[in-house]
Structures are given as structure tokens and as C-alpha cells.
Amino acid sequence: MSWYSIFGADIEKWVTLGIFIVTFIFILYRKFNIAVIALISAALVILLGIISPWSAVLEGINWDVLAIYSGYAILAMYLRESQLPAWLANQVMLKFKKEKTALLLLCMIAMALSVIIANPEVVIILAPLAIEMADKMKGNLYVYLIALAISSNVVTTVTMVADPPAILMAGYTGMEFFDFYWFQNKISLGTISVFAILIGVLVLLFQFRKMNNTADLPAVKIKVNPLPSIIFIVSVLLLAFIPWASLGPFNHRGILGVCLGILCLILGGKDNAKAWLKEFDWNSILFLIGIFTLVFAVNQVGLLEDFANLIANSGITSTAVYLAILIWVSVVLSAFIDNVPYTVIMLPVCDFLASSLGVNPFPFYFGILIGTGMGGNLTPVGATANVLACGMLEKRGYKITLGNYIKLAWPFTFAIVATAHVLLQIIWL
Questions:
Q1: What residues are paired with 183 via a beta bridge?
Q2: Packing angle between helix 362-374 and helix 402-428, nearest 10 degrees?
Q3: 60-85: string of b/e by CB count within 10 Å (b at 16+)?
Q4: Please, are residues 61 and 291 in contact by the beta-carbon 8 Å criterion?
Q5: Spatial separation of the C-alpha atoms in residues 426 and 424, rounded to whole Å
């Protein structure tokens, strides 16, 4: 079924670019409800004939992602009700009485979990623990939740299955799981990422250095319902080890998310189910629907492809300069656009660049993955994990400002990306 068109192809690009820029200006300064802004922008690109409503619904919006986020959000409420976060918080603070040490441990747990679980899910699962710790430590919840979100975002290149762009690159190049650690007789992307993340942990420790609150608490006997934890472990195993790609029409991880949410609502009981649905962060879901639609329009009109061609035809002859451009431009762009379509478009660009320069394309592949994987930390809306963390904070009365966010997120992010960049330069060029 066709959709009407108002503008020519060139005008459509300019109109879409204008809507995109204005949308993110409004979103970054958060003067209005970001879900409303995103949905208005999505409606505009549809009403102006740039994309059709059915293509937005069937192709642009990632319903699998939304379903998994929703399912794990409800599971997180069930986990909280089970007293597991309270028990974990008590155990952490009994062993690590200083706030800075306890918070660093929370961030490291987030990093470890994000290797096998999508980072928004990690934020949803660990947020109750962060809230409990901040309350008992009398700490700043803003720091806890933002640190949790940015920590979960930086491990996307540690394994082949940690993030969709890594899976895309592996499929494109034929890399196997362990090729991420040793490949072509060199240290590979996953190993480089681990070294870079260790530097990031040291940066976090420096940033937390003044957080010297203590919670000298007596051991408290907390009765934990083990059922939510069992459901969580089983769901993680299903996400990680089901051969989704071989399931044909059932290759939708969102099915697991829907089943997970329904199961938790049933097991939680009628009263809890009502409370959880009322507490659920519908605003973030609506925001993501709008943003998925807008980014789909950006891709459909060819703006990403134009950008890729601009880089490929720049006339630069230095491999090191191209690597730097690919990494840091990817960092900047991933703060605003979905890294999946960007990765799909840029992988052939890396081939073109490597072929024209007569060099190995893998450092270029690795460079764009490092940039897209870690660059989402540049803004509060650059990654879904950040959106969810900010939504939780705003629901609790915290004001999200770009300046305060930058103070925490940028030193951590730039340290990791710069370390990975230097290692790629030394080892692969």
C-alpha cells in the first residue's frame, strides 16, 4: 500500500533533518515532556508523507525491544517486592561501609550483567537496589542512577552478543564468539574493550572520591522470596542461549518479554499488579516509540547514507585519521541516532575505505562499534538505559540538566573511548 508524498526527495531530506534537529534540541533541554515531543515529531514525519504509518509500525518501531523492556520492568518490581534489593543493599553495605566503594561495586555489577543482558534491562533490574542503597547511605540518587546507566552502556563490545551492532558485525564479517578476544594473531575487540573499561572503573573511583558517607548498619535478617530471582535467572538463560535466529517467524525476543511481564503480574497478585501497572514508566515507552519512528524516517530518506558517502569520498589518505574520524564521529552520532541502522550502513563504508587505502578493514569495523557502543553516554537520551534512568529520577522529583549529566558521564565515557582508540591504533594499524 502506497502513502502520499508532498515533497520531492531532496526537500524530504531537509524537512526530516530539520524535524530531527529541533526535536533533539527540545529533548536535550527537557523543557517539555520528552514523550510528547517525540510523538509530535513522529506524527509530523507521517503526516508530511515522509514515511507511512504502517511502515513506521511494522518496520520503524522495534516492538521486540519495547516488549523486553516492559517485561523486565515488571520483573524488577516483582524483584523489589521479593526483598532481594533490600537484602543485597544490606549485604553490600555491611561489607563496604563507605558510599564510594559500595556505589563502585554497583556499577561493576551493572557492567558484568550488561555483557549478557541488554543494558536497559540491567538498569531496570538494578534500579531498586540503587534506590535502596542511596536511601540508606543518605546519598544522591541522581548520581546512583546515572552512574548505573552509563556503566551498563560501556560493555557493548566485550562479547559478540552484548549488543545488536556487535551481532551485526559478526554476521557481516563471519567472526565467531572467541574471535572477539584473539583474531588474526592479534588482541581483538573484546579484549581491548575490557582494558578500556578497567580505565573507566578507575575514573569512576576518582569521581566518587568525595562520597564518604557511611552506613554502619547492624546485620538485618531479611526474608527473601526466591521465586522472582529464579524467574530472572531462567529468563536470562533463555535470552542468551535460545537460538533465536533459527526460530523463523518466532524469532522475536519480545515474546519472552510479554510472557515474563504477564507471568510476574499473575504471580504478584491482583493488588500488586494494579500498583505495578500504575507505577510503570509509560512515558519512557511512548518516548521510545516516537524516537524509533523519527530515526526510521532519517534512515528512509537517506540521510545516514549521505553521511557515509561524505566520509568515504573525503579524499583523506591516512588510515590513522580515518580511524579517528570513524570512532569519534560514531561517538557523537550515537548520542542522537539508533546505532543499528548506523552500523548497517557504515560496515560497507568501512570496506570501501579499507579497499581504497589497501588496508585491513577490521580496525575500522572495531572503531565504529566502539564509537556507537559507548557514545550513547554523551547525552541523557543517547541510550535507552539513560532514558529509563532519567525517567525514574524525574518521577521522584529530580531535575535532569545537561550540565549535571555531563559532569558525571563525559569523563568516564571519553576515558574509555580514548583508551580503546589508542589500543586499536597501536595493535591494529
A1: 186
A2: 160
A3: bbbebbbbbbbbbbbbbbbbbbbbbb
A4: no
A5: 6
Calculate mean pLDDT across residues 262-290. 88
CA distances from 179 to 165, 185, 365 (A): 15, 10, 13
Question: 156 — phi, psi (to 5°)?
Answer: -70, -15
> What phi and psi values does residue 255 have, to the nearest 5 degrees?
-60, -40
pLDDT of 30 reads 65
pLDDT at residue 360 above 60?
yes
Which parts of 88-246 are beta strand (E)?
Answer: 182-183, 186-187
Q: What is the pLDDT of residues 94-118, one digit of tens each?
A: 777 788 988 998 899 888 878 766 6
Give the position of cell 559500595.
102
The structure's pTM equals: 0.71
Name residues whose C-beta falls within 8 Å of residue 210's C-beta, 6 or more positions apart in sequence.
Answer: 100
Q: How many CB atoms lie within 10 A of CB 92?
A: 22
Cβ-based neighbours of 258, under 8 Å, separated by 6 or more: 67, 70, 71
Q: Spell out the alpha helix ranges (H) of 6-96.
A: 9-29, 34-47, 53-55, 63-81, 84-95
Q: Are 393 and 174 in contact (CB under 8 A)?
A: no
Q: Helix, strand, or coil here: 98? A: strand
Tell me if 406 sits within 8 A of 140, measured CB to CB.
Answer: no
Q: Is 182 helix (H, G, I), strand (E, B) or coil?
A: strand
Three cell numbers, residue 40: 509530535
Looking at per-residue confidence, does 316 or 199 come out higher?
A: 199
CA-closest candidate to residue 297, choices 43, 65, 67: 43
Q: Please classify residue 213 by burial: count the beta carbons closer than 10 Å to its beta carbon, then call 0-12 exposed, 13-18 middle and 19+ buried.
A: middle
Direct distance between the N- and C-terminal alpha carbons of the chain, in angstroms, rounded to an integer: 49
How confident is the model over 59-83, as pLDDT tens digits? 888 788 788 778 877 887 887 778 7
